[in-house]
Design goal:
about 35% helix; single chain; 6 helices; seven-stranded mixed beta sheet; two-stranded antiparallel sheet; alpha/beta; Rossmann fold; 2 domains
């Protein structure tokens, strides 16, 4: 059997913690369900659990501690240099807990994705599941969006609804949303590399028909 060629769709993944969405992406790639290759995983936190997970999957990792930089842009330039050196075409945030600088967003314009556990623009920022429960909404979910220099405010690529049950607490709701996040993020990555996505103002066009 001929050896499978390595994908040219190179992604860089930014993490700050356990990297559960990173793992879902790597699993889809390994299974052949996502035509991409993780070129580098970067963490701003030296003790992030996702670093070990990435290494176990054979993905190169790099720690760039934000505390070693004087400014956000200085830190982001270090990340951009590392990602650029690896030929990264798409940057995926997977539990990356820092706001990216305008310089970084411009450097990778239209090539930075994030996933958030709510139906944006509702409940941006931290503790989105708790926000949803306290607001009394009946439907929450998750959103993949392009990243800009504000918190969870970039153009929306895909969304998936998740009902909020009467006995939900933030942890149970978060667990059910996370199951949807894994599939949704990989679908968005596939759409990007298929060249389907086009941003028109605040709208992202080309997300239908669905690509599995």
């Amino acid at each position: 059997m001929p050896e499978k060629k390595a994908s040219k769709n190179l992604i860089g993944i930014l993490i700050s913690g356990r990297g559960s969405n990173m793992r879902a992406i790597l699993d889809r790639i390994s299974a052949g369900d996502l035509d991409a290759r993780a070129a580098l995983v970067v963490s701003n936190e030296p003790k992030a659990a996702g670093l070990l997970l990435a290494r176990e999957c054979g993905v190169p990792t790099l720690v760039i501690d934000h505390r070693d930089s004087l400014t956000r842009e200085e830190h982001d330039r270090k990340m951009a240099d590392a990602l650029g050196a690896r030929g990264v075409r798409l940057v995926c945030l997977a539990g990356y807990m820092r706001l990216l600088s305008p310089w970084f967003i411009e450097r990778f314009e239209g090539r930075v994705l994030n996933i958030h556990p709510s139906l944006l623009p509702s409940f941006p920022g931290r503790d989105a599941q708790r926000q949803a429960i306290e607001a009394g909404v009946k439907i929450s979910g998750c959103t993949v969006h392009f990243v800009d220099d504000r918190v969870d405010s970039g153009p929306i690529v895909l969304q998936e609804a998740v009902p909020v049950l009467d006995d939900d607490d933030p942890d149970t709701l978060a667990a059910r949303i996370l199951e949807k996040e894994h599939d949704l993020y990989c679908r968005a990555i596939a759409l990007h590399f298929y060249g389907r996505l086009r941003v028109a103002g605040r709208r992202v066009l080309g997300t239908n028909p669905r690509v599995d």
